[in-house]
Amino acid sequence: MGLLTCIDGGEVLKKGYIYAIISAIFFGTAGIFVKLAYKTGIDSISLLIIQYIIAVFLMFTIAFLKDRKKLYVSKKELFSMAVLGAVGNTLMTVFYYKAFEHLQVAMVTMLLFTYPIMVFIYSAIFENEKIQFKKMVAIMLAFIGCVFTLNTFSGEVKYSIRGLVFGILSAVFYAFMNLYTEKKLEKADALTINAYSTLFSLITLFFIRSPEFLLGDYIKFESLIYIIILAVLCEIIPLTLLYTAIQDIGALKVSVIGNLEIPTAMIVSFMFLRESISMMQILGAILIVYAVYLIRGQR
Does the keyword field hold Transmembrane (predicted)? Predict the structure, then answer.
């Protein structure tokens, strides 16, 4: 019996690692489909609204068919999901997609993945977490990595200040999402959290852009193809794999593996969009990944 338990446990761990890797790779490809969708003439808010409509419909359908009881949540949980969606998810994705209008895919992805640094700073200041030497080194490495990523020493300004601000703000609200979920929704079902928070995010976006545009001929068929891909391949599937991996191997290991999004974004943007990547940016990406690993590896 003990041997069988070890074998089963090993299989679960193996499955968890595989799911986490696939999830990171799928997430890392999101930028290329956003860029391709922009080329069809659609703007970021319209793209997000349609993406969320598709994602919300599919997630609630899956949750209803899988276990409809999990869709019943308390008023307190519903309020927390509303805050998570309306504030965190909405602002994170809006700024994230806006950044793609001004910066390369790889650069936006790298800026987003400075969010663990922000989580650490918050914990150190507001949660009175002890600042260890390794964590201080990690912050310095992350800062240097960001400098390298932005080609600061190249002698030429190759980035948009507006895009840079959007990218950093997306990281700020991504950090908020992680902290808020950990504190307010630690016992809720993952798919339920995703479904409701996305729904509230969609409702919030309707205050920014009237849904009347959906009735016109503004949306091209080509745009719709990319949006469906974003909703299914870059949101629903990777999130499902992510939550399953967390259950199998834990959030810490999954978060470390999640940094595969950075090299994935760099590779796909180079292959499909022909975006140039310098050795300095590659070094910056390596430093950011290592810095995030150091921080997340600390208790």
Answer: yes
Count of domains observed in the chain: 1
Q: Are 106 and 275 in contact (CB under 8 A)?
A: yes
57 in a structural domain: yes
The fraction of the chain above a pLDDT of 90, given in percent, is 31
Say if 170 falls within a structural domain.
Answer: yes
Sign of the torsion formed by the C-alpha atoms of 269, 24, 99 and 138: negative
Which domain covers residue 25, as residue numbers? 18-296
Predicted structure pTM score: 0.80
- SS3 (DSSP) at 39: coil
Is residue 7 one of the residues assigned to a domain? no
Express each pLDDT in 53-97 by its tens digit: 999 999 999 999 988 898 999 999 999 999 999 999 999 999 999
Residue 6 lies in a domain: no
Sign of CA dihedral 198, 200, 201, 206: positive
Tell me if 39 sits within 8 A of 31, measured CB to CB. no
Radius of gyration of the chain (CA): 19
Contact 149, 288 (CB under 8 A): yes
| H/E segment holding residue 30 | helix 30-38
The pLDDT of 112-134, averaged and rounded, is: 74
